[in-house]
Design a protein that fits this description.
The chain is of the alpha/beta class. The protein folds into two domains: about 55-65 and about 75-155, Threonyl-tRNA Synthetase, Chain A, domain 2, CATH 3.30.980; about 170-440, Rossmann fold. About 35% of the residues lie in helices and about 20% in strands. The protein has helices spanning about 1-25, 25-55, 115-120, 125-130, 200-215, 245-270, 305-320, 340-350, 360-370, 375-380, 410-420, 425-430; strands spanning about 60-65, 85-90, 100, 105-110, 135-140, 145-150, 170-175, 180-185, 190-195, 220-225, 240, 285-290, 325-335, 355, 390-395, 400-405. A ten-stranded mixed beta sheet has the order 8-7-16-15-14-9-13-12-10-11. Helix 5 runs parallel beside helix 11 (about 410-420), helix 7 (about 305-320) runs parallel beside helix 8 and helix 9 crosses helix 10. It binds adenosine-5'-triphosphate (ATP) and magnesium ion. It comes from Nonomuraea coxensis DSM 45129. Keywords: ATP-binding, Membrane, Nucleotide-binding, Transmembrane, Transmembrane helix.
Amino acid sequence: MSDQLYTMLAVLAALAAGLWAWRRFHYPSFWLVIGFPIIAITIRATWRKVALGCGLTKKRQRFWFTTVPGLVASTGVVRVRRKWQRIAVDTKPFMWLPLPARHGWRVTLHTLEGQIPADYAEVAERLAHSWGVHAVRVSSDKPGRVRLAATVHDPLVKVDELPPSTELLKVTVGRLETGTPWVIDFRTVPHWLNAGATQSGKSNLANALIVGLAPQPVALIGFDLKGGVEFTPYAPRLSALATSRAECGGLLEDLVALMTDRMGVCRMAGARNIWQLPPTMRPVPIVVLVDELAELYLMADKSEKDEIAKTSTALLRVAQLGRAFGIYLFCCGQRIGSDLGPGVTALRAQCSGRICHRVNDPETATMTLGDLDPAALDSARTIAAETPGVAIVAGQDGQWYRARSFYVTEQTAERAARTYAHLAPPWSEVVTAQPIETPDQQTA
Ligand SMILES: Nc1ncnc2c1ncn2[C@@H]1O[C@H](COP(=O)(O)OP(=O)(O)OP(=O)(O)O)[C@@H](O)[C@H]1O
Ligand SMILES: [Mg+2]
């Protein structure tokens, strides 16, 4: 008897060790074969309780059968006196079978009458706690259907490097929480706002862009209002660098003049934008990186008013018309609030790409992410200081995502800037509108 017990214990111990090793050394297959089926069954089995707890059920009249008259019904609503009785029952939204996803699982629900996806988004945090997962995201691709995507662990704690993008003006800068690459594509979303508190990862993202754009046939311009400490090391790859408001003003004037030139070229060639021009006539695209945007707008005394107004108008013109003429903005700042003046608000309206790193005050998140889903703002406020580089990203598709940039040190960006220094067209050449040859496969 005791021999049998020992054998059983040994088998159990071996099984436990095997499972542990499987989970440790090949988590994806362990998750698919063991972890996910157990979770899927649990989710289905407990859905009534969870939906009830999160307020997602509706009362419906149903015939209820009981073999013990007088018993309190399971819903606790009505005392049953007859065997068949019509009573109000809490109905849960219909749930399809959960499906495994890269970092968790997803499931589709049928909404009940009067429900909208926002009702589910509102209780996403409650659902996440009920299911013991990191986060639940709500989306809806069809009326009457809601898709819940649960991530079991935060996929952004550690992000692995991805292969760089080879397309013009497209840079893979990090990873989205869905596991897909986080791509900044200036041709789809031409202007970006990148906000965040100090040490939240703004410059790291700018470094990632420099590394990604350096090998491409584009001109890079730096507006470094931190007195040049951020971008001066990248000067070899920059076609121009401005480190004060006066210098930025000068460069912006050049850019506006350049834009007018390009407008003329496009008009003559009958093109709506530089991408419709024949490759031999196409001027070089320009990406303008701005660090500490607020410095452009801060006024110490009245004498600066005119200068600020001029710079702000020029920047706004670049933002409004730049897209068609190959001039793209990437503006970083700690605060991008309307208190900086109407120029900032107008510029913000032109920047459809929004990135909000960790912020100190809720207003900055609201200013940056605008009137996106309130859940995006909540998510921005909960970014931890221990995870710099994590941000909420909103792009052209109207969706928002949590994402994390790859860690790109200043040294890496400096090295890229030196390696590709020969690709930096001199500013004098750029402003004289020298057309460059762009490979045909890079045209849209
Ligand atoms: N994606 C990332 N992964 C890991 N660490 C990061 C990441 N991004 C930033 N960091 C770390 O956070 C530090 C601060 O980042 P960064 O200099 O980009 O902040 P910042 O927002 O530009 O701050 P400031 O406003 O002071 O310029 C970096 O030195 C780096 O160590
Ligand atoms: Mg910085």
